[in-house]
């Protein structure tokens, strides 16, 4: 059902890797780990139906609810 | 040092100006008007106070820890573990804030001009552009901002000239009919924007003339305040308290221009300016995120993580934001409190702590 | 490696080229005017005047007076948005509102209420905030079908006329403000079609502004004629190019003045529960025709003219107030806002009763009229010197 998205995101990730790889080769291991784990995070996140999922904005909304209600007219 | 570029204090001020104003100009007048009615022009004045405080706090911190960004000195002040936690929290917040800025930028474009274009295309192309600016370093962004700034200020003055005959100056009355309350409540919204001056914590270490940082920071806040004041007055004189119902009052003002029967429909101008402003704003946020994250993770360079971060930002710009109404809700109900709390109070706390635990590891700093 | 990247970059151009919002001008049906009429079953009928670009390029010879530069199409629907969707099926090009500068409500539509349709005009990104709004006597669609002789199409005629401030000029944004404002009342220019010179030239005529339609709570409640409209415009301070012809007391003939400048001030006051509005006006004019035997170079004679001038304005204002304030009870002068500005607290307490207060607001006029210049001659232009009255 969301195969198109998965495919597109994978392609995008591959493109980013391809673009960065030459420069990344000379960098320390730490940089490589950070680079790949960030991409992995993104790839995993992209598999979800993000707009309709509870996320940081929802949590912050909950957290600030008492104050947010102040702004209601 | 991860960043080898240097900018002048003046460039920093010019850089921060569109960073705050770009999104503030567009949506803030209407949200402010919803609370302040025709006192909406007073609100930026109250709101700017927190901007001055933020600049002073960040500058004071910078003076205690020159050459360091907030991510680095928070580790010195809070200790390694707490400092890292603080940094991680800040960086996550910055990813989210950047994402929201991109989203609002794209919503405006898609809602008013490119009605057929999928929003993800607008978001990702802008982020790609910004990614290259960010990879270029702080110098590139600052130079772009310096080049674009005149285009940012002049159209506003042009609007005043072209719309002057349509202004109804008496709309400003009664001033403070219900006391200072409504305008203060209206100020809650723009003060969130002013707290974004915390970004200076990522720029101050790269100044060539560091002693002028405070002066230009304060001047920049003042310029932003003045701009918001003027733009609020323009829309008030033009539309009255009806501003509150408009999503993008300043764009409506530009569309209202009709001068000598042919000088009309300036909204494409507003769009062009706004894309420029959004580019600077997103780049600065994006840059702070990339630089801060690299420092947090002790990387040797921030450039490799720019694109992966951009990917994350794209995703965050959708995460639990199904509609424009959701971003507006965030702007009204969360950011006015989140901003001052995290971007002004936490640095202030850091500053106080840095006095209590006087430079424990300062000698060790590299 | 570089080559692969370059290829990929170039490939990405393929995606960028296909702008989703690309619209070529020859794919657009440019609307120059729109009419909204009431239809049966609570529906509306939307008629649009579409510009025909080909008619313009076909050469001037064939498109001289009477040639059709526009065509009119209509569709019925539950709302404007609904009607547009239906209309689009009848027009091969994409409907484009960005150049629509005239919106006309039919009389029946105006009486039914315009609030619902206003929402579309301010919400949709295409209609211009500065587009002019009108109410038409009878059906609005007929105005669009006219083939005026002087201008290219009928909506341009009424737009140009409004620009001269002959009648009221109300833009979308101003109408929105009136409808949402404190006074609950609105006024729109009322247009009608001039009777054609003869039967054969049925459509070769033009619309003109005949008065003002008065709205209360978004519904048209009445109309005032051209003369009372002048009074309304006087009060609203909108009079610009317009000639006052005043009859002097005990003198034969009239004097015409062309007011150049007028300055209106509203001074609200509330005393012992009596709401009162003082209209202070200072107006100046030049003599453009003197049909009397008075010497226009004599300041004393000018005093007489000024008096008549002042009387004329007072009469007009009175006429406007009588019809609008006492008969229709619609606050189209926006006294409400003036009271709010001066007495915010009292206003707050009384705002729900404004409809009852407004007809009883006591209006005092305080008008100062001045004649500044006599024109190019001093003595009356058409009578022997002996007959000129100097005192």
From TrEMBL, chain A:
Record keywords, A-Z: Membrane, Transmembrane, Transmembrane helix
Transmembrane recorded as keyword: yes
Listed transmembrane segments: 6-24, 33-50
Name under which the protein is recorded: Uncharacterized protein
Organism per entry: Brevibacillus parabrevis
TrEMBL record, chain B:
Residues passing through the membrane, by range: 12-35, 41-61, 81-106, 118-138, 145-164, 184-204, 216-239, 269-290, 302-321, 333-356
Entry-linked Pfam families: Spore_permease
GO CC terms of this entry: membrane
InterPro entries: Spore_GerAB (IPR004761)
GO-annotated biological processes: spore germination
Keywords: Germination, Membrane, Transmembrane, Transmembrane helix, Transport
Main location: membrane
Membrane topology, from the record: Multi-pass membrane protein
Subcellular location: Membrane
Keyword hit for Transmembrane helix: yes
Record family assignment: Belongs to the amino acid-polyamine-organocation (APC) superfamily. Spore germination protein (SGP) (TC 2.A.3.9) family.
Protein name: Germination protein
Originating species: Brevibacillus parabrevis
Lineage: Bacteria, Bacillati, Bacillota, Bacilli, Bacillales
TrEMBL record, chain C:
Domain Spore germination GerAC-like C-terminal stretches: 210-375
One of the record's GO cellular component terms: membrane
Signal peptide: none
Top-rank taxon: Bacteria
Membrane topology: Lipid-anchor
The keyword ATP-binding is assigned to this record: no
UniProt keyword list: Germination, Lipoprotein, Membrane, Palmitate, Signal
Location, primary (coarse class): membrane
UniProt keyword Signal, yes or no: yes
Biological process terms in GO annotation: spore germination
Location(s), subcellular: Membrane
A Pfam family assignment: Spore_GerAC
Chain ranges of the Spore germination protein N-terminal domain: 21-191
PANTHER family registered for this protein in UniProt: SPORE GERMINATION PROTEIN B3
Similarity comment text for this entry: Belongs to the GerABKC lipoprotein family.
Protein name, UniProt field: Uncharacterized protein
């Amino acid at each position: 059902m969301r195969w198109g998205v998965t495919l597109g995101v994978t392609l995008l990730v591959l493109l980013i890797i391809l673009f960065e790889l030459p420069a990344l080769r000379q960098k320390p291991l730490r940089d490589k780990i950070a680079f790949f784990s960030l991409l992995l995070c993104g790839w995993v996140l992209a598999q979800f139906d993000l707009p309709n999922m509870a996320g940081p904005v929802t949590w912050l909304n909950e957290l600030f609810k008492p104050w947010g209600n102040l702004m209601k007219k | 040092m991860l960043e080898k570029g240097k900018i002048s204090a003046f460039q920093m001020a010019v850089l921060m100006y569109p960073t705050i104003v770009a999104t503030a100009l567009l949506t803030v007048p209407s949200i402010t008007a919803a609370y302040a009615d025709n006192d909406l022009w007073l609100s930026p004045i109250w709101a700017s106070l927190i901007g001055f405080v933020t600049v002073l706090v960040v500058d004071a911190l910078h003076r205690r820890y020159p050459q360091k960004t907030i991510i680095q000195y928070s580790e010195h002040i809070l200790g390694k573990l707490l400092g890292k936690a603080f940094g991680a929290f800040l960086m996550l917040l910055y990813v989210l804030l950047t994402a929201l800025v991109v989203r609002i930028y794209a919503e405006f474009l898609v809602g008013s001009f490119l009605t057929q274009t999928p929003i993800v295309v607008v978001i990702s192309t802008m982020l790609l552009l910004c990614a290259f600016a960010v990879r270029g370093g702080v110098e590139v962004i600052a130079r772009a901002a310096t080049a674009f700034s005149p285009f940012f200020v002049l159209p506003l003055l042009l609007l005043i000239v072209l719309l002057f005959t349509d202004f109804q100056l008496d709309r400003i009355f009664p001033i403070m009919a219900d006391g200072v309350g409504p305008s203060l409540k209206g100020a809650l919204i723009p003060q969130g924007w002013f707290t974004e001056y915390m970004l200076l914590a990522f720029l101050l270490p790269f100044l060539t003339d560091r002693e002028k940082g405070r002066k230009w920071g304060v001047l920049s806040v003042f310029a932003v305040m003045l701009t918001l004041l003027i733009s609020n007055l323009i829309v008030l004189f033009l539309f009255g308290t009806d501003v509150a119902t408009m999503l993008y009052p300043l764009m409506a003002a530009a569309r209202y221009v009709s001068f000598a029967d042919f000088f009309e429909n300036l909204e494409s101008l507003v769009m062009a300016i706004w894309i420029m402003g959004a580019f600077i704003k997103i780049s600065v946020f994006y840059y702070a995120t990339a630089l801060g994250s690299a420092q947090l993770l002790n990387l040797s360079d921030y450039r490799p993580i720019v694109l992966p971060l951009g990917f994350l930002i794209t995703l965050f710009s959708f995460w639990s934001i199904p509609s424009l109404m959701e971003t507006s809700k965030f702007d009204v109900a969360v950011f006015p409190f989140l901003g001052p709390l995290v971007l002004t109070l936490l640095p202030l706390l850091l500053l106080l702590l840095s006095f209590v635990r006087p430079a424990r590891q300062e000698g060790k700093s590299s | 490696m570089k080559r692969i990247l370059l290829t990929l970059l170039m490939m990405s151009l393929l995606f960028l080229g296909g702008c989703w919002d690309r619209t070529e001008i020859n794919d657009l049906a440019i609307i120059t005017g729109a009419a909204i009429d009431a239809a049966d079953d609570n529906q509306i009928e939307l008629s649009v005047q579409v510009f025909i670009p080909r008619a313009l390029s076909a050469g001037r010879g064939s498109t001289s007076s009477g040639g059709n530069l526009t065509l009119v199409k209509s569709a019925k629907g539950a709302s404007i948005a609904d009607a547009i969707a239906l209309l689009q099926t009848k027009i091969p090009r994409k409907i484009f509102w960005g150049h629509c500068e005239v919106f006309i409500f039919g009389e029946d539509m105006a009486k039914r209420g315009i609030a619902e349709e206003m929402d579309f005009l301010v919400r949709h990104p295409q209609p211009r905030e500065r587009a002019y709004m009108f109410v038409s006597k009878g059906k609005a669609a007929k105005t669009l079908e006219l083939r005026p002789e002087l201008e290219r199409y009928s909506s341009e005629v009424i737009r140009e006329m409004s620009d001269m401030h002959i009648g009221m000029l109300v833009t979308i944004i101003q109408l929105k403000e009136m409808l949402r404002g404190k006074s609950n009342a609105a006024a729109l220019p009322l247009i009608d079609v001039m009777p054609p010179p003869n039967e054969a030239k049925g459509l070769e005529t033009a619309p003109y502004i005949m008065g003002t339609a008065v709205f209360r709570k978004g519904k048209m409640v009445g109309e005032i004629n051209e003369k009372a409209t002048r009074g309304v415009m006087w009060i609203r301070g909108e009079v610009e190019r317009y000639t006052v012809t005043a009859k002097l007391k005990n003198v034969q003939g009239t004097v015409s003045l062309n007011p150049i400048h007028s300055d209106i001030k509203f001074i609200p006051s509330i005393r012992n529960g009596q709401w009162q509005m003082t209209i202070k006006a200072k107006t100046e004019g030049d003599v453009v025709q003197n049909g009397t035997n008075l010497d226009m170079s004599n300041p004393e004679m000018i005093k007489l003219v000024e008096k008549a001038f002042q009387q004329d304005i007072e009469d007009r204002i009175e006429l406007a107030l009588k019809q609008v304030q006492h008969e229709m009870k619609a606050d189209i002068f926006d006294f409400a806002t003036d009271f709010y500005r001066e007495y915010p607290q009292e206003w707050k307490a009384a705002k729900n009763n404004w409809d009852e207060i407004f007809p009883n607001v006591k209006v005092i006029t305080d008008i100062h009229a001045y004649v500044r210049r006599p024109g190019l001659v001093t003595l009356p232009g058409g009578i022997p010197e002996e007959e000129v009255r100097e005192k």
